[in-house]
Amino acid sequence: MAKKPENLSFEQSLGELEQIVNELEQGDVALDDALKQFERGVHLVRASQDKLEQAQQKVAILLANDTEAPLSPFESEEQ
After folding, report:
1. The whole model's pTM is what?
2. Of 18, 44, 46, 68, which sits most exposed with the smallest number of CB within 10 A?
3. What are phi and psi of 30, to 5 degrees?
């Protein structure tokens, strides 16, 4: 059974959304299955939006604690 969207990481949600979009774009999915996938996608998007909003709030709180903290570009460890 698939995990609940709120229990997935942001990256897992995004990966599953990409898979759903690819399957729906191919058009080989029965209508009932397409509707179920669409509904799952909507739940994934909402859970992802919640995670992003929480992250934005945390950043705002952290920056509010240090008003002198300069903003700098994010550099990924992969670079």
Report:
1. 0.72
2. 68
3. -60, 155
